[in-house]
Amino acid sequence: MKKLIFFSAFFLFVIPVFAQVKIGYINSEAIMKELPEAQDAQRKLDNLVQEWQAELRRLESEWKSKYDAYDRDKLIMSDQTRSEKEKELVDLENRIMQYREQKFGQNGELFQKQEEFMKPIQNKIFNALEKIAKDEGYDFVFDKSGEILLLYANEKYDLTNKVLQALK
């Protein structure tokens, strides 16, 4: 929300001064929904997720069955058997947590597969956008999907080097 207010204020006060600046926007979500390659990549990801979730459900079901058997019989088990069953349950629970982290964690396989499948598509979209922006004279192009994101900027507006010089 703060970004939206900032960009609104920016455009309200700065654009009249630079009326010659040409600004455009895209809706990347709409582009991804229409692009056959993106749909194929999403299907592949969905299939992997379903496969991984099925394995996770299987492991959780196995744990529940073992726990129910343990809970039912623990009073008649020897201390050694009870200890072995408890260790077995803990090991299986750790395996479940490991599997979940491996597949769905922050740097898990899902994240890696998204990168692998989507990066070429995003590059293709960006290259098309960059060509259109240059050919049609756009200075800035934003993505209106989700948070406001600057996708393209004419290099003449890049102040990075000036800021770096001022900081030295």
Quick structural summary:
The protein has 168 residues and is mostly helical. The protein has six helices and three strands, in the order αβααααββα.
Provide tags for this entry.
168 residues; 71% helix; three-stranded mixed sheet; 8% strand; mainly alpha
Overall form: elongated
Which class do the helix and strand fractions yield? mainly alpha
Helix content: over 70%
Helix count? Answer: 6
Q: State the major sheet.
A: 3 strands, mixed
Beta-strand content bin: 5-15%
Distance between the termini: 33 Å
Radius of gyration: 27 Å
Report the uncertain regions: none
The beta-strand count equals 3
Order of helices and strands: HEHHHHEEH
Output mean pLDDT.
84
Descriptive notes:
The chain has one domain (2-167). The chain is elongated. The chain has helices at 2-14, 28-34, 36-73, 79-104, 109-135, 160-167, and strands at residues 23-26, 140-143, 149-153. Strands 1-2-3 form a three-stranded mixed β-sheet, with helices on one face. A hairpin with a 5-residue loop joins strand 2 and strand 3 (149-153). The longest helix is centred in the first third of the chain and has 38 residues, at 36-73. With 168 residues, the protein is mainly alpha-helical.
SSE map:
Blueprint: H1 2-14, E1 23-26, H2 28-34, H3 36-73, H4 79-104, H5 109-135, E2 140-143, E3 149-153, H6 160-167
Parallel strand pairs: 1-2
Antiparallel strand pairs: 2-3
Helix pairs in contact: 3-4, 3-5
